[in-house]
Specification:
Elements lengths: L11 E3 L2 H6 L9 E3 L2 E4 L19 H16 L4 E4 L2
Parallel strand pairs: 3-4
Antiparallel strand pairs: 1-2
Length: 85
């Protein structure tokens, strides 16, 4: 997920304001899920969020939309890993 507007990426899905609210995110900030990118990192160097922190969630309908884009990216062989170390 990014707040940088993607340029010409057919696999980018803008997160609607309602989904930003559901996710516990600031709805006044635009955000996108880049469905043809996935993160990978070394487990020993990764961090985790506060275990008891308040978590939001996206709706099933929106997740389905993102999932469809991910499947399209995989089928088009356009999915790629992005290191976040």
């Amino acid at each position: 997920m990014t707040t940088l507007e993607p340029e010409n990426n057919p696999f980018a899905v803008e997160v609607p304001e309602t989904e930003m609210r559901r996710g516990g995110l600031n709805p006044s900030v635009r955000a996108w899920i880049i469905a043809n990118e996935y993160n990978y990192d070394a487990y020993q160097r990764t961090y985790y969020l506060e275990p008891k922190a308040k978590l939001g969630e996206f709706s099933a309908m929106f997740i389905k939309q993102v999932q469809e884009k991910m499947i399209a990216a995989i089928n088009a062989r356009k999915a790629k890993g992005v290191g976040r170390n």
